[in-house]
Amino acid sequence: xxxxxxxxxxxxxxxxxxxxxxxxxxxxxxxxxxxxxxxxxxxxxxxxxxxxxxxxxxxxxxxxxxxxxxxxxxxxxxxxxxxxxxxxxxxxxxxxxxxxxxxxxxxxxxxxxxxxxxxxxxxxxxxxxxxxxxxxxxxxxxxxxxxxxxxxxxxxxxxxxxxxxxxxxxxxxxxxxxxxxxxxxxxxxxxxxxxxxxxxxxxxxxxxxxxxxxxxxxxxxxxxxxxxxxxxxxxxxxxxxxxxxxxxxxxxxxxxxxxxxxxxxxxxxxxxxxxxxxxxxxxxxxxxxxxxxxxxxxxxxxxxxxxxxxxxxxxxxxxxxxxxxxxxxxxxxxxxxxxxxxxxxxxxxxxxxxxxxxxxxxxxxxxx
Length: 368
Hints:
Blueprint: H1 2-9, E1 47-52, H2 58-75, E2 80-85, H3 90-102, E3 107-110, H4 119-127, E4 132-135, E5 145-149, H5 151-166, H6 169-172, E6 174-179, H7 185-198, E7 203-209, H8 215-229, E8 236-239, H9 242-254, H10 270-278, E9 284-286, H11 289-304, E10 313-315, E11 323-328, E12 331-333, H12 339-343, H13 350-353, H14 359-365
Parallel strand pairs: 1-2, 1-3, 3-4, 4-5, 5-11, 6-7, 6-8
Antiparallel strand pairs: 9-12, 10-11
């Protein structure tokens, strides 16, 4: 089992993912620099624009940014990374994209705040001959390549883990679904994957789409769900990520819910991992950041050089068909396999997880 988990942490999904959205273009037909080619190969220093969506979720500044920068430097020692963060503001990100185009960067790695509203800026980049790699979220417009996790599979992993933990309680109980931001296409895929597992197996008492993935919004929504359903009538909570799980658990505790129902999560944030150790949060989805970040860096450098990126499948967005893509497999993490996943892979050390507050819980969990 441990060997399988280790392999999964770095495995690229070999099966094609078809995003069930109407398509009205093609990455190969999009024009501009498109999906790369041999006509205009570039030598010498390159500038890669890196646009991340927000700085509230720990992963972006702590993992994605440094890993992408590291891999780009390994591939191209004299390349420069021009980094900006939109801080969850779609209009700011549009301005940042336009600035990258004005600066004539050689390629852009884009993690979109709003996948739909950024399409115009992606089109401008394409018209300027600047390829855009959609990172983590599939932005609309003539994207040249895409890397993320198999997002429906993420939802399936969360839903399956929750059902297994509920056992017989699933038959007569009800859960709350706290989905991600309605402007994030990944959130819709997480939700679709989760519902494909949960529908018909457990009653969903309340379901929310959470503005901006904000923990405070999740906290407010959860408080409303408790008031509506009754604190003793909620057997589990599907939370699309760890940040929202924190807000949900705070609401449950404030309402005097004891014992806490199982709450899911995603991203393996340190706070989420610590809640799993303490028993407050049931599970998280570990998405190994390195293979995703490295794939984005490799795609961007190849495209900037006028080469075709190495990918294993294609995906469709609402505007573009057959976008070359690399998809990474997610992993369910509970207290039982924490040591063999996030610790073994070096995401966090035992010392980072097991602060004084969690020392006893860590000892009980076998984290030493």
